[in-house]
Specification:
The complex is a heterodimer. By secondary structure, chain A is mainly alpha-helical. Chain A contains 7 helices and 3 strands; from the N terminus they run ββααααβααα. Chain A has helices at residues 18-35, 45-50, 67-72, 81-109, 121-140, 145-152, 163-187, and strands at 3-7, 12-15, 114-117. In chain A, a hairpin with a 4-residue loop joins strand 1 and strand 2 (12-15). The radius of gyration of chain A is 18 Å and the shape is globular. The two termini of chain A are 28 Å apart. In chain B, helix 2 packs across helix 3. Chain B is of the alpha+beta class. Chain B has a 3-stranded antiparallel β-sheet. Helix content of chain B is 57%, strand content 18%. Chain B is built from 4 helices and 3 strands. The chains are: A mainly alpha, B alpha+beta. Chain A binds chain B through residues 71-79, 87, 90-91, 94-95, 98-99, 123, 126-127, 130-131, 133-134, 137, 142-145, 147-148, 175, 178-179, 182-183, 185-186, 189, and chain B through 31-34, 36-37, 39-40, 43-44, 77, 80-81, 84-87, 89-93, 97.
């Protein structure tokens, strides 16, 4: 059984069972896959390093088509499609790279049963966990406060029969973990 | 690199005018982001005191949106990028249009 995040003398720490860590690592990997830009084999790695996208200037450059990816990378100016696209050309690749960096770091932290976060790593871990929840919520069709309450009420793993029921329990577990992390982080601010 | 001085000056004036326009950073409510997470982001990123962060967070939650920062376009674009990095639903808007 997992022990929630707590503020300790050494940092913010939690302990997770092997199955829970495997589940979380898989979720972090899934979101990395969503965010990884399709990259030509011969692309100069310098583009990724500076956070720019060599395709961003192309005429067919467009917002993400997958709704979960679009939620992670929303339009900056919903009243101005051209300005939103220009913002994407300049910053989307950088945001993707930052998110992927945090998600990779979070996946690596799942190697050990005790998760210990420093003041520096905690915000990146929180953001990675939050991105996982945003993607799960999109897959679950969680759009309103009522949906959130309905999903939150599901708590019995033995009764989960459908993919959505299982996803709802996973979502609730990740939510519980993030809430405990945020309480610990707010305490040490 | 070189440019005709009269052309260069004209461009710089146009940009300066654009930069004077105050822009708003708007955070929108969604049923996923935790209230504790939103408060944490407002406190840690903007350096807002706890009371101000809580007030803005509750405004997002209850009214559906809140203006959490203002500034020139460059600053607000950087804020939007940072908020998207955190996973908050952030947009920018011209002050007179909002």
């Amino acid at each position: 059984m997992a022990r929630a995040f707590k503020s300790t003398l050494r940092g913010i720490s939690a302990s997770l069972e092997a199955a829970e860590r495997k589940l979380l690592r898989g979720l972090f990997q899934d979101v990395i896959t969503l965010l990884e830009p399709e990259r030509a084999a011969d692309e100069d790695p310098l583009w990724a390093m500076v956070g720019l996208d060599p395709h961003a200037h192309r005429a067919d450059f467009a917002p993400p088509s997958d709704p979960a990816t679009k939620r992670l990378l929303p339009d900056a100016d919903p009243d101005d499609a051209a300005a939103s696209l220009e913002f994407r050309r300049l910053s989307e690749r950088g945001i993707r790279e930052r998110k992927i960096g945090a998600l990779r770091e979070a996946a690596l932290l799942m190697e050990s049963g005790t998760i210990l976060l420093s003041d520096e790593t905690a915000p990146r871990f929180a953001a990675a966990v939050n991105d996982v929840r945003l993607v799960l919520a999109q897959r679950l069709g969680l759009a309103t406060e009522e949906d959130a309450e309905r999903i939150h009420a599901q708590d019995d793993w033995s009764k989960a029969e459908t993919v959505d029921e299982y996803l709802a329990l996973v979502y609730n577990f990740v939510t519980w973990l993030q809430e405990s992390l945020m309480q610990a982080m707010l305490k040490s601010l | 690199m070189t440019a005709m001085p009269d052309v260069l000056e004209h461009v710089e004036q146009a940009q300066a005018h654009e930069l004077d326009q105050p822009y708003l950073l708007i955070i929108w409510n969604d049923p996923v982001n935790l209230m504790s997470y939103v408060s944490y982001v407002f406190r840690s990123y903007f350096g807002y005191p706890e009371a101000k962060a809580e007030k803005l967070m509750m405004q997002v939650h209850q009214e559906g949106r809140s203006v959490v920062a203002t500034g020139n376009r460059e600053k607000i674009e950087a804020d939007v990028s940072a908020m998207h990095g955190f996973g908050l639903w952030a947009t920018l808007s011209k002050a007179d249009a909002a």
